[in-house]
Amino acid sequence: MGSLCSKQRHFDKPENEENGQAAEIERRIEQETKAEKHIQKLLLLGTGDSGKSTIFKQIKLLFQSGFGEAELKSYTSIVHANVYQTIKILHDGSKELAQNEAESSKYIISSANKDVGERLSEIGGRLNYPQLTKELAEEIGSLWNDPAIQETYSRGNELQVPDCAHYFMENLQRLSDANYLPTKEDVLYARVRTTGVVEIQFSPVGENKKSGEVYRLFDVGGQRNERRKWIHLFEGVTAVIFCAAISEYDQTLFEDEHKNRMMDTKELFEWVLKQPCFEKTSFMLFLNKFDLFEKKVANVPLNVCEWFKDYQPVSSGKQEVEHAYEFVKKKFEELYFQSTSPDRVDRVFKIYRTTALDQKLVKKTFKLVDETLRRRNLFEAGLL
Amino acid sequence: MGLDVGVGGQVLDLETAVKDGILGGGGGIGVGGGSAEKLDLKKMIEELEAVEVPSVFICPISLDPMRDPVTLCTGQTYERSNILKWFSMGHYTCPTTMQELWDDSVTPNATLQQLIHTWFATKYSAMKKRSQDVQGRAIEVLEILKKAKGQSRIEALKELRQLAAAHSTARKSLVDNGGVGSLSSLLGPFTTHAVGSEVIAILVSLDLDYSGKTNLTQPAKISLMVDMLNEGSIETRINCTRLIEMLMEGKDFVSENVSSLSLLVGLLKLVKNERHPNGVIAGLRLLKAICSHESLRASIVSIGAVSQLVELLPGFKADCIELALHILEVLSTVPEGRLALKECAKTIPNMVKLLMKVSESCTQLALAILWAVCKLAPEECGALAVEAGLAAKLLLVIQSCYNPVLKQRSAELLKLCSSNYTATNFISKCKLTTTIQ
Q1: Rounded Cα distance, A36 and A25, in Å
Q2: Phi-psi map region of A46: left, alpha, beta (phi>0 left; psi -120 to 50 alpha)
Q3: In this complex, do B227 and A367 lie within 8 Å of one another by their Cβ atoms?
Q4: Taking residues B86-94, what's their average pLDDT?
Q5: Which parts of the sequence bind GTP (chain A) (predicted)?
Q6: A contact test, residue of B261, B263, B275, B296 with most A CBs within 10 A
Q7: Which of A353, A371, A372 shows the shortest C-beta gap to B189?
Q8: Which phi and psi (to 5°) does residue A229 adopt?
Q9: FRET pair for B22, CA 20 to 30 Å: which of B9, B35, B150, B327?
Q10: Interior CA angle at A118 toward A114 and A123, to 5°?
């Protein structure tokens, strides 16, 4: 365009200048494209509440500068919101159970806490939550300790009680302190529905302090929205880290209370595996929330989930937990191979047992992921 | 000729001569000396088989070290029993110089005998000491391993691997000192590939007992082996394959332990990789072992093993063909396997080609597979088989095989395939030569 105009007037100098600039810009683009090629892109996928964002936060804590004070402070309102949301869900849940259950009496809140309950439920339904004061914290605490609420909590899987419920309820004193500054752990537990895409760039520091690999991690929201429209934008990522919360086999979706969460995860995993844009992508399956799984397996049999209906327990205690875990792992493995066409069998597929809240575990797990991806690179470069 | 005296014309004693390496046998370390006489020369020669023996100690007839050297009148020295045998065959010449002997006496060469004995004794005690050193070092490294982390752990494992590979004494020493347990404990869900591959390489070279194998047969450890089987270098892949095969030999082995689809897929990849024949054979052997568990057969079929194995057959060597046929035959005992065999276009032609081509057992297996397929769809498959030249082959089997079972089977199969043809039609399809017709 520019050269067209200048044709009529000056020929030499301006044209040279423009060419010079264009060349400079092209050189810059080339440089950056080259640099981009060396950045390994990782995409976190999974259904809602599977722990993707927790992994994201952990990576931030492990390999970046962590959370600064300002950022920590920004989580205060989120933590408080979680508290209000939780107690409301529990309170409303207890009323629902009291109405529908045969043994309704155990879900009826004691008269002392009844009004408090109603008030808190109202607060929890607002768009903006008030500051968590000591008084409010005390009221919430006493309601939490109400036997009816505890009974309701034990049926938490049927309601949408978030996994952070217990943790926050047990820390109300601290959370309501006037000078409360959220700890790293609080941040990890804090639950916010991810909207849009968030990304961080980091370099895992090896033992020799020279890793060289640069990763860019993307976290997208988990709910069932128009996934198919944007998923192809991630073609060319080095690896997909698919998070599946294995403790959710007896829970239903936030968006659809009749749909079992594990079945939803199964469908999503299948769908992702078949996407043409991931033909050559490595798949790292994180079977997450193992700590909750461990506790649940003893009380809730796996076969409440349709996918696991052929499960047979063989023993008890720790051995049984391991056995149950291996069963779930095998189901995912089967699903992987069923959904993978023969020409894609060459892509890397590994399963990791994770508890996203455990920083040490995440660090160890990521070390293995890093090793696998580096080996894969060497292999593809023909050096292995 | 004779014994060279040392530099400067000194007469050296025997031990010094050997010790200083005058005979070119290399500097002998350690004593040897008096106690050597008591050591059995035969035993030492056997144990030092790999060592290069000085040529003057070797009998020209047998090319073995001499235990009872005797010298002829020509001055040439031979092992007594060998030269006497030469004489007994009617020769009266010196084998190396071809001269006719003017004197048939054989003189024992005591000097040479003593020299030989001392040399071997020195070498032997050096070897024993080295062996002890190796054993000692192996135990040392094992201790280091208990505390080492990170890069030093990998270094220790590498050294242990070298020791175990080179010295059977090191291997025994490792097993006797709880090495198997220590190494096993390094394998877990968070073991890096670098560590895991070294550990597996060591374990696969050791003699594992029942408890060692049981210890290794935990799901998390097998999972790790499967991962390395899929990702590692060819050497690591083969090591993992061999180790899993070793673990399967245990009495109480449960089929569930090897039911992982990732394992089966990884093995198929190994088998298809024709650049590494060792991998192909190792993969086939493990697949065969896994096939023996009935509950796993359907899984093997589900990953497409049948068609892949059938298509690989023409490119295989004899030992691989037999293993592959064995696997396919076992898979044909389950309905999924039979179906897969039938649906693979190459099954029938490849099986027909293999009849009477490699060995009797291969023929038996190929026959069994053909039987399974043709039984499933007699008309369709029978026709295909005949088109592929089955009849001529079967007649060949019936005519030339001694095995009555084989002949019977062939006859039955022939009947099954020909049932849709009239006699003349069939014979024309057989493409038989006119003489047989």
Answers
A1: 16
A2: left
A3: no
A4: 89
A5: 188-194, 219-223, 288-291, 356
A6: B261
A7: A353
A8: -80, -30
A9: B35
A10: 145
Q: Show the tokens assigned to B16.
A: 């010094």
Separation CA A350–CA B369 (nearest Å): 36
Cα separations in angstroms, A259 against A249, A262, A278, A306, A336: 11, 9, 27, 11, 22
Tell me which chain B residues have a C-beta less than 8 angstroms from the C-beta of A351: 223
For chains A and B, count residue pairs whose Cβ atoms are closer than 8 Å.
41
Residue A222 marked as a ligand binder: yes
Whether the CB-CB separation of A233 and A15 falls below 8 Å is answered with: no
Interface ipTM: 0.76
Q: What is the pLDDT of residues A29-75, one digit of tens each?
A: 888 887 777 788 899 998 888 888 889 888 888 887 778 888 888 88
Min Cα distance B341 → chain A (Å) is 18
Q: Return the half-sphere exposure (C-beta side, CA atoms, 13 A cut-off) of residue B249.
A: 12
A216 phi and psi angles, rounded to 5 deg: -125, 120
Across A190-248, the runs of DSSP E, i.e. the strands, are 197-202, 214-220, 239-245
Pick from B340, B338, B348: which is nearest to B372 by CA?
A: B338
Threshold 0.90, pTM exceeds: no
Q: What gap in Å lies between CA B58 and CA B62, rounded to an integer?
A: 8
For the segment A2-21, what is each residue's pLDDT rounded down to a tens digit? 444 444 444 555 667 778 88
CB-based contact A368 B192, cutoff 8 Å = yes
CB A375 to CB B193 under 8 A? yes
CA distance A241 to A96: 38
The DSSP symbol for A127 reads: S
Asked if B291 and B297 count as a contact pair (C-beta separation under 8 A), the reply is: yes
Residue A176 vs residues A98, A190, A247: alpha-carbon distances, Å: 30, 15, 30
Cα separation, A160 vs A179, in Å, equals 30
B190 contact residues in A (CB cutoff 8 A) = 364-365, 367-368
